[in-house]
Design goal:
heterodimer; A: mainly beta; 6-stranded mixed sheet; 4-stranded antiparallel sheet; 0% helix; disordered N terminus; B: mainly beta; 7-stranded mixed sheet; 11 strands; 50% strand; globular
């Protein structure tokens, strides 16, 4: 498969444990945030999004937390499974521009 | 099946030889975009298109061209490729913009020697 990046932060978790992946975003004017999952050899896949008027949003087995004070975003994955092994990255979009900024990503490795 | 397709998936070429990477979506999406992905830099937007005949520069447009003559197709053109354009390229589409879910293609690995 395609290598998505070198020198990525790596997180290793035991199957069944919860995972927390963090992202520091850059622009205080950003008002919409997205988490993507990228498996080896594939394009990014949308996981969950959150708008700046929210602090928390839950999906199926995933929760995104937004802390605007410190410009921090986190993705929590409950009961991590081997199929969750991938690179995860956040993206931010601002109110005054129709541009997107992606974070460099974190590689999640699930230990069976 | 709803999807974004890209061709070719892999390409090795030489400096200066014009090439086109095709992108097609079958979801009737208005918004389409090209990104490049490089180690340690994350995805960076090259060009995007809000609709047919409407295109605009992203963050790294130098050395690239695009066109949007039909809603479903958004080819990326490298008129004179250079080694610094060696990268992994992704096309994406969404219903109407960045605040709708973007669907990404499988990627094109380009090597320019």
């Amino acid at each position: 498969g395609e290598s998505v990046g070198l020198h990525l932060p790596t997180l290793s978790v035991q199957e069944g444990d919860n995972s927390i992946i963090n992202c520091a975003y850059s622009n205080s004017a950003s008002d919409y945030f997205i988490w993507y999952k990228q498996e080896s050899g594939k394009g990014p896949q949308f996981i969950i999004d959150i708008r700046s008027n929210m602090d928390k949003r839950q999906g199926q087995r995933v929760t995104v937390l937004l802390n605007k004070t410190v410009k921090h975003l986190s993705l929590q994955i409950a009961a991590t499974q081997p199929g969750d092994s991938a690179v995860y990255f956040c993206a931010e979009i601002g109110t005054s521009y129709d541009k997107v900024i992606f974070g460099p990503g974190t590689s999640l490795s699930v230990i069976p | 099946e709803a999807q974004v397709t890209q061709n070719p998936r892999y390409l090795i070429t030489v400096t200066g030889k014009k090439l086109t990477v095709t992108c097609s979506q079958n979801m009737n999406h208005e918004y389409m975009s090209w990104y490049r992905q490089d180690p340690g830099l994350g995805l960076r937007q090259i060009y995007y298109s809000m609709n047919v005949e409407v295109t605009d520069k992203g963050d790294v447009p130098e050395g690239y061209k695009v066109s949007r003559k039909e809603k479903r197709n958004f080819p990326l053109i490298l008129e004179s490729p250079s080694p610094n354009q060696t990268s992994l390229y992704f096309c994406a589409s969404s219903l109407s913009g960045l605040r709708n879910e973007q669907y990404f293609g499988p990627g094109t690995r380009l090597t320019v020697t």
